[in-house]
Amino acid sequence: MMSPMTCTYVYCVFFQLWLLTGFTVTSLPNVAPSGTASQSSTSHNGIASLAIDGNRNPKYGDGSCTHTVENAGQSPWWSLQLPVMYRISSVSITNRNELSERINNAKILIGNSPENNGNNNPSCAVITSIPSGSTRTFDCGGMIGRFVNVYLDDPQGILTICELEVYGELVDTYLVMGRSVVVVEKKLCWSDALFYCRDFYWDLLSIRSEEEQREVEEVMRNASLHLTKHVWLGLRRYLMAGTWTWMTGASVDYSYWETKSIWQMTSPCGGGDTDGSFHWRDLPCGDHLHFICLADFPEDDKRVMFFSSTRPSV
């Protein structure tokens, strides 16, 4: 467990619901049909894939809407797994023309975590209501993820979706020794970078070997944005010792530090150069830098818990 710290800069993310009546999406494609749909249960032949078949027909009897089991003993959900990560601008949902209130208070969730069938991901919006047979568009503000879920927190509830459309663009990802990584265009302090990666991807990058180091260097050379002089990595030093650790829980068998300094004179936050030698170095934790996230979720989660005065443990 890591010790508390506070950034000099507090980065706040507010998720806001926009229920737009006349909003249309023209600049980005609907990527939902490229994904695979699933749901908590199926009743009345309302299979999950009917929500991404391109048919907005709101009449359930015409066979164009999904349907979960009534009183199934678990809160109903519908999930879309996209083939790759997208930066999602908005989600449009078409409601059935009868019993339209069934979708009220369902949440739209977006993220990369497959845990709990994708229902642990961050919220884009809460569906207060969608009028009978209507389509409503919810602004998700560029949230990033492979999973788009609709979750209704009601074990006695029924979830029906006649069509769900996801409008977004591809997120640039790179492969490093078979692991998907993302260079994030935001500039954040170390702890906020960690929170961002854990909220929207998996964790800050760990580098476990010389081969991975060389591939990360290639990623930074080819990054589409002009990187800060250094980028944050998932390196963290225990406050009362000279031991460095990866926040992913990976072993620190390989290192690429520029110099070995007396630990009492170093910062506990670690990053790497983005050109030249690409060495690792300790950096002031409050510096606002680009950073690299790991996007893949491993089967065994060994991440180091981190506490901040502005956030609960992650």
TrEMBL record:
<dbReference type="GO" id="GO:0042806">
    <property type="term" value="F:fucose binding"/>
</dbReference>
<dbReference type="GO" id="GO:0010185">
    <property type="term" value="P:regulation of cellular defense response"/>
</dbReference>
<comment type="similarity">
    <text>Belongs to the fucolectin family.</text>
</comment>
<feature type="signal peptide">
    <location>
        <begin position="1"/>
        <end position="22"/>
    </location>
</feature>
<dbReference type="InterPro" id="IPR001304">
    <property type="entry name" value="C-type_lectin-like"/>
</dbReference>
<dbReference type="InterPro" id="IPR018378">
    <property type="entry name" value="C-type_lectin_CS"/>
</dbReference>
<comment type="function">
    <text>Acts as a defensive agent. Recognizes blood group fucosylated oligosaccharides including A, B, H and Lewis B-type antigens. Does not recognize Lewis A antigen and has low affinity for monovalent haptens.</text>
</comment>
<protein>
    <recommendedName>
        <fullName>C-type lectin domain-containing protein</fullName>
    </recommendedName>
</protein>
<keyword id="KW-0479">Metal-binding</keyword>
<dbReference type="InterPro" id="IPR006585">
    <property type="entry name" value="FTP1"/>
</dbReference>
<dbReference type="InterPro" id="IPR016186">
    <property type="entry name" value="C-type_lectin-like/link_sf"/>
</dbReference>
<keyword id="KW-0964">Secreted</keyword>
<dbReference type="GO" id="GO:0046872">
    <property type="term" value="F:metal ion binding"/>
</dbReference>
<dbReference type="InterPro" id="IPR016187">
    <property type="entry name" value="CTDL_fold"/>
</dbReference>
<keyword id="KW-0106">Calcium</keyword>
<dbReference type="Pfam" id="PF00059">
    <property type="entry name" value="Lectin_C"/>
</dbReference>
<keyword id="KW-0430">Lectin</keyword>
<dbReference type="Pfam" id="PF22633">
    <property type="entry name" value="F5_F8_type_C_2"/>
</dbReference>
<dbReference type="GO" id="GO:0005576">
    <property type="term" value="C:extracellular region"/>
</dbReference>
<dbReference type="GO" id="GO:0001868">
    <property type="term" value="P:regulation of complement activation, lectin pathway"/>
</dbReference>
<keyword id="KW-0732">Signal</keyword>
<keyword id="KW-1015">Disulfide bond</keyword>
<dbReference type="InterPro" id="IPR051941">
    <property type="entry name" value="BG_Antigen-Binding_Lectin"/>
</dbReference>
<feature type="domain" description="C-type lectin">
    <location>
        <begin position="176"/>
        <end position="294"/>
    </location>
</feature>
<dbReference type="InterPro" id="IPR008979">
    <property type="entry name" value="Galactose-bd-like_sf"/>
</dbReference>
<comment type="subunit">
    <text>Homotrimer.</text>
</comment>
